[in-house]
Amino acid sequence: MADGAIIEMRSLSFSYPDGIRALDNINVEIFRDEAVGIVGPNGAGKSTLLLHLNGLLRGTGMVRVMGMEVDRRNMREIRRAVGLVFQDPEDQLFMPTVYDDVAFGLLYLRFPQSELDARVTNALAAVGLRGFESRSAHHLSFGEKKKVSLATVLALEPAIIALDEPTSNLDPESRDEFIRVLKSCRGTKVVATHDLDLVVEMCDRAVLLSAGKIVAGGATAEILGDRALMERHRLKVPLTLQLRRKI
Amino acid sequence: MHRVDPRIKIIAMTVAVIIIVTTPPGACLSFCAYALTVLCLLLLSRVPLAFAGTRLLLTLPFILVIGAFIPFVKEGEVAGSYSLGAWRLTLTYGGLALFWNILIKSSLSVLCMVILPATTRFDRLLRGLELLRCPRLIVMLLSFMYRYLFLLSDDLMRMLRARSARDCGGGPWLTVKTLARMLGVLFIRTYERAERVYLAMCSRGFDGTIVARDALAIRRADIFFLVAVMICFGAARGVGGA
After folding, report:
1. What is the percent of chain A with per-residue pLDDT over 90, rounded to a whole number?
2. Cys staple from A137: which of A36, A58, A93, A174, with CB 3.0 to 4.6 Å?
3. Is the pLDDT score of A1 beyond 50?
4. Residue B215's pLDDT is what?
C-alpha cells in the first residue's frame, strides 16, 4: 500500500456485459481526508469507477480501500467504510419513510435501537433536516431528497464518501446548500461530476477521465485551468477559474 | 382511531371481516347491525363518507363481474328464464339470494378494510404487518410497491405528455401501437430502476436477509379498542341469529 493511500486502484479495467470497455487500465491513489474530483465528459466512466470503490462492480486489476482488497471477504467492512451517494435520490431512497431510509444501513450493521435513533437524528441534523424522520421520500423536494440521500450514508460514519453527480438537477440555492453540507462532512471525499465549478470549490485534486482512461491528474486549478486539455475532452475551463485569472 | 396500534387495527378488521363473511345469508338483521357498526367506525375515525363511498365503488365492478353469473348458474327454483338465440338463461331464487349475499358481504368487508389505510399511515401499516409475523418478503414487496408506484405513474404521465406533444394525429391504431411500445419502455425503465435500487441497497450493507426494527408498544387503549370492536360485531351477529 502506498504511504497513506486510503484508496488505491492498480491497472483496473472493466467491460460491461455488452462489450463496452468502460474502464481501461486505471491507476489512482487517493489519500486520507483528501477531496478528489473525478471529472470527465458524459460516458467517460466516472460512475463505473465509483461503483468499483465498494465492490458493486468488480473489474480486472486491483482495488484496495483502507488497505483491504475489495473482495467478498472484506465486503462488509468496505461497504461500511465507503458511503456511496447515487446520482438519482429516487434510487437511494427506497423505504417508506426518511427514518427507515437513514436507518437502513445501520440495521444491517446490527446497531441497537437506542443508537439507531441517535445516529439517525444526528445524520439528519448534519444535513439540516432535523425532524424529517416520519416524512415520506415521495413528498420531499429534490434538494431535500438529495440531502436525505447524503444522510443515509452519513449515518454509517464512513471514512470515504463517494458522490455521483451530487449537484445535478439542483437549483442554485439548493446547490450551494448541498455543497456547504458536503464541505462540513469529515472524511475522504470522491466526487464524480462534470460540474467543474463544484470541483474548484471543494476538491484539492482533480483526475480527468475520458473514454475509460485517466488522461490527467493533479492540483485542481492546474488540470481544470488547462484550456487545451479541457477542450480536447469536451470540457470547459470552469467560470470560477476564468474569473480568477482575469482578476 | 388514528392512534390505535396498527397491529390491533389489522387484527380487529380481519376478525370483523371473518365474522361478516361467515354470517348465514338469511340473517338480515345482522347485516343491518354490521352496516351500523361499520358506519359508526367510519364516523369515529373521521373518514369522509364520500371517500369510503368512492373506494367501495372502485371495488364494485370486480364484485359484480364475479357475482353476476351466479344467479344463472346456481340450480334451484326458477325465477325467470330468457332466451338469447340458441342460449337459454334461467334465473333461480337461490342464485339471486346468493348474489345478494355476496354483494352485501363484500361491500361491508371492503368498507371495513377502507378504515384500515384511511386511519393508518402506510409505513405504520407495514410495521404492523411485519410485527404480526407477515412474511418479511411480502412486507418488503408492499413497501417497494408503495414507494415506487407514484414514480411509475409519474414516468408514464411524462411519456404520455411527450407523446401528446408530438402527436399530430395518426388514427386510433397508431395510438394503440404507441401505447404498447410505451408500456414496453416503461417496463425496461422499471427494470433498470430496480437494478439501481438494488445497488443502492447493497452499498448500504444489504446482504439478502431482511432485518426488522423492534416492536411498537401496545397500550391499554388499544386492547380496549379491540375488545369493543369484537363485542360490536359479535353482538351484531347475535342479533340476526336470535
Report:
1. 85
2. A93
3. no
4. 62
Q: Does A138 touch chain B if contact means CB atoms closer than 8 Å?
A: yes
* Contact call for B203 and A95, based on CB within 8 A: no
CATH number of A67's domain: 3.40.50.300
Residue B129 maps to a domain:
no
Interface test with B, best of A78, A95, A165 (most B CBs within 10 A): A95
Shared domain check, B81 and B5: yes
Q: Which of A125, A94, A120 is nearest to A107 (CA)?
A: A120
Q: Is residue B126 part of a domain?
A: no
Neighbour count for residue B153 (Cβ, 10 Å): 10
Spell out, as residue ranges, where chain B has pLDDT lower than 50. 242
Section A173-188 average pLDDT? 94
Report the residue from B144, B205, B212 with minimal CB separation from A80. Answer: B205
Asked if residue B201 belongs to a domain, the reply is yes
Categorise residue A187: left if φ over 0, alpha if ψ from -120 to 50, beta otherwise. left
The three cell numbers of residue A115 are: 443508537
Determine the structural domain holding residue B173 and report its residue range: 134-211
**Please, what is the angle between helix B122-131 and helix B93-119, to 10°?**
110
Count structural domains, chain B. Answer: 2
pLDDT tens digits, A192-214:
999 999 999 999 999 999 999 99
Enter the pTM of the model. Answer: 0.82
